[in-house]
Write a structure and sequence with these properties.
Layout (H helix, E strand, L loop, with lengths): L2 H22 L3 H28 L6 H32 L6 H7 L7
Helix pairs in contact: 1-2, 2-3
Length: 113
Amino acid sequence: MDAPTLFGLCGAALVALGLFGLIINPQPLRKILAFNLLGGGVFLLFGVIARRGAADGLGGDPVPQGLVITGIVVAFSATAVAIALLLRLFDQTGKATLDADDARQKDPDGGNA
């Protein structure tokens, strides 16, 4: 087994673990972490595809590397915004959950406190 195949399998495993965590975990912070894991797997797959293309003599294509670098920056900023929103939710409700039943228990009138 060569290195690009091994990295491709690792990328696929990261994507699978990220999808599993995104679907199974109800907590928002765990969903954010699972989404980042999924994104890391996709970035690794892009890198492997670019490497395999260059190894087959197709020439080095800078587009996949540019997409990965741009994706990393966008994923970092999206994660920062998601965590800021999660912290704001925790400040407002005292809980970091998106469950509607918990919000109704805190404010039974349904109005803004």
